[in-house]
Task: structure prediction
Amino acid sequence: MNKFISVVVPMFNEQDNISEFYKRITKVMSALPYDYELIFVDDGSRDRTALLLNELVQKDPRVQAYLFSRNFGHQLALTCGLDNATGDAVITMDGDLQHPPEMLPQILRLWEDGNEIVQTIRKATEDASFFKNITSTTYYKMINTVSTVHITPGGSDFRLMDKNAVKAFRLYRERARFVRGMINNLGFKTTTVEFVAPPRFAGKSKYNFRKMLHFALDGITAFSNVPLRWAFYAGIFFGFGSIFLLGHVIYVKYVVQDTIPGWTTLAASVLFLGGIQLVGIGIVGEYVGRVFEEVKQRPLYIVSEHLVKK
Result:
């Protein structure tokens, strides 16, 4: 009996990529000695993505689709697919063809060699801008400085997970999800494979600067409390600094006697300590906000419809 492979594919406004992706993934998987299923998760698309997925579902019994009631985000779309996959191994990949389906035979061989997680490492993206490359490099250096869990630079959400790793991943139910860090935290036997991501087959990336910044904050706050400690240390440092500043102010006022009325208060409190306090409050507020989201215990996502062949 062949082993069973689940392929999980999040989708958001990908109507122009679906047909080509399906053609290439089925060509690759049909040539391999595995039974398989394709699980598409439509993350609240506003184009014809859901309609096209329904057509695939009715044409191919190996295809099923989960339609979200609204846009919950890429990480939760991945989570939905992993929650519902039944394979001996689960492969997650994007549907824009920047994760080449032709790599699946190599990834599956590494799994057959005994690796429980096969993580792809994106060495470069052919159409990536200089700004995106430099910010990505800086982010990985920063998060690995503050985090207790190592995040592989260039790691993507294109990976294979053995069913035991998937079962362990399902125990993690936090709302602010950084899937790459969560999977690195599992501790299963992992290997990596490098690739160069081709340009998107069609359309534009859905990750704008605001979403990328939010994603970066999720990664840092989910695996480190170092920013809170930095705020505390900064408070101590600038607290002592204010003492020296006060000494300078007293010297200028009473020795040099060349001060403007009110300058002492502005220099010592508003211009110096006020800014530092706001930074500290902002960092604390970021963590408090995430605690607030967790304690509400709302569902991670809502599936409005599950499409299967009738």
